[in-house]
Amino acid sequence: DKIGESYIYLVAGLGNKEYERHQGKSKSLTFSGFQFDNVPVGLSHAEHGIQNNKKIAGIFGSGLLRLFNVTYNYAKKEMYWEKNKKYNVSFGFNASGLELQLDKELNKVLIHKVFDNSPAADADIKINSELNEVNGRSAADIGLPELRKMLNESGNTVKIKVDGKLIDLKL
């Protein structure tokens, strides 16, 4: 109820055992006088290991921390939060439903996963397909970090080419 739009996918832990990871957005988060809406959060469904902790419900991560300069007063066990120049930058969130990876030769971008109820699933994009282009540019030339940013812009439409087929993907 406190998590907005979300999806669940499998990730490999140590020993290659797969477990579910729930990626979503916290509808609201307030701390130290700051209030945020739709903050990305990761929730683990691991049964063992570091991701299985009864006291931790989720991880907000560096997407939130990058908005602040944080000063620690170890003697008083206090943290001081100061907005920095990135404070008004929006949080990224996988708006496409695609998880990408490079092939073994590192020269092709492949569709590793397609999340249910996502724009990619609605466009009938299949796992192991090749992402050839995004907005007319070679996906391999763009690189994974920039591709992920391009696919995080909810509300935008990107023109992608998958296995040679052009698709207008509304994020």
Question: How would you characterize this protein structure?
Answer:
This protein has helices at 62-65, 119-122, 139-142, 144-150, and strands at residues 3-12, 18-31, 34-44, 68-73, 78-83, 98-102, 109-114, 130-134, 137-138, 157-162, 165-170. Strands 6, 7, 8, 9, 10 and 11 form a 6-stranded antiparallel sheet that branches. The chain is mainly β and 171 residues long.
Output the keywords:
171 residues; mainly beta; 3-stranded antiparallel beta sheet; 4 helices; globular
Task: Please describe the topology of this protein.
Elements lengths: L2 E10 L5 E14 L2 E11 L17 H4 L2 E6 L4 E6 L14 E5 L6 E6 L4 H4 L7 E5 L2 E2 H4 L1 H7 L6 E6 L2 E6 L1
Antiparallel strand pairs: 1-2, 2-3, 4-5, 6-7, 7-8, 8-9, 8-10, 10-11
Condensed summary:
The chain is mainly β. The chain has helices spanning 62-65, 119-122, 139-142, 144-150; strands at 3-12, 18-31, 34-44, 68-73, 78-83, 98-102, 109-114, 130-134, 137-138, 157-162, 165-170.
Total number of β-strand segments?
Answer: 11
Compressed to H and E, one letter per element, the order equals EEEHEEEEHEEHHEE
N- and C-termini, Cα separation: 23 Å
Low-pLDDT runs: none
Shape: globular
Instruction: Please give the share of residues in helix.
Output: 10-25%
> Biggest β-sheet: count, sense, barrel?
6 strands, antiparallel
Number of helices: 4
